[in-house]
Amino acid sequence: EGLTSRPAAVAYAAGRTLTGWPARDVWQFDPRRTVTVVKRLLGRSFREPGLEGYLHGLAFRVNHEPDDSLTVEIDGNKITAEAVCGQLFAAQRALIKDATGTEVDRARLAFPTWYPAGSKHALANAARAGGFAVEALVAEPIAAALGAGLTPGEDGTVGVYDFGGGMFNFSILD
What we know:
With 174 residues, the chain is α+β, with helices and mostly antiparallel strands. Helices cover 32% and strands 26% of the residues. It has helices at 21-29, 51-56, 81-100, 117-129, 140-147, and strands at 10-13, 16-19, 34-35, 61-64, 70-74, 77-80, 106-111, 133-139, 158-162, 169-173.
């Protein structure tokens, strides 16, 4: 696609599943068939405080299942958040192969600092469903620091700012 990032969106339209920018294009005229912000649904329980109010603001339908889990419903078809994320992982994996000719089958995943254990587990399952072997789960501030060249055991204190997903996270690594 020629860009350095892709929207975490999956659209189900005209019998096709679209991810990334094409899904974002569908979202503009058919938001009920486009799943966005799915990472906020991974591994979550319908009973979590504040979640029900958040769900009412979404354009797509989210169902409360008998086991207290959540599913997204598009045209009468129920899809778990893990399955939607798995489609995102698989699409990204295919895009990498198309762009580089290299098969990528291992992943180290960064998760938001607020993620509960169930969400981390669901994220790893989604990556596996997308064809990746999960080597590690790392909190986003730690991943950012490692990506910037900080090495474990290095002297000093580093502040890591994260302006992602509508949240402002600040972590101090020592």
